[in-house]
Amino acid sequence: MEKVYMDSDLIGRSFICSLLSAITLSLVSLFISTDFSFFMLAIFSFIFFLFYLFIATPLQIKLNQKPKSFSIVYLFTYCLASAVVTALFMLYGQANPFTSVEFYIHVGMSAVIFWIFDSVLLQKKEES
């Protein structure tokens, strides 16, 4: 089993990245749905934050062992994780999420938002 290096700075920045990603995804989702309210913003942000914190953050910490800003491989990894979580979540409410346009929009938005915050806040410059 491979050791994963973690320090308090990495954990703190990962926490902030998850929080900012959750708030941003909530804002985008609520503006698209036109049912904006600050109460719903708080609820959606909390739910998205939990998903980011417990699913995306461990991936982020693992990927940060070889940091690369704006890496397409990292985006693809976040898309896969987002697709699994979104599919499981949507399966609870409907039969087949893969036939829904909302599924693909949500997967793309959640992965890209997290990837951008990850690249800006967490990934250090590659050492040559």
Give a quick summary of the entry.
By secondary structure, the chain is mainly α. It contains 4 helices and no strands. Helix 1 (8-33) crosses helix 2 (38-63), helix 1 runs antiparallel to helix 4 and helix 2 (38-63) crosses helix 3.
Q: Strand content of the residues, in percent? A: under 5%
| Secondary-structure-derived class | mainly alpha
Percent helix: over 70%
Query: Biggest β-sheet: count, sense, barrel?
Result: none
Name the poorly predicted regions. none
Transmembrane segments: 12-32, 38-59, 71-91, 103-122
Pfam family, one: UPF0715
Keywords: Membrane, Transmembrane, Transmembrane helix
InterPro entries: UPF0715
Structure characteristics:
UPF0715; mainly alpha; transmembrane; membrane; single chain; transmembrane helix; about 130 residues
How does this structure look, described?
This protein has helices at residues 8-33, 38-63, 72-91, 101-122. It has four helices and no strands. Helix 1 packs antiparallel against helix 4 and helix 3 packs across helix 4 (101-122). The chain has one domain (8-122).
Topology:
Elements (H helix, E strand, L loop, with lengths): L7 H26 L4 H26 L8 H20 L9 H22 L6
Keywords: Membrane, Transmembrane, Transmembrane helix
Pfam family, one: UPF0715
InterPro entries: UPF0715 (IPR031374)
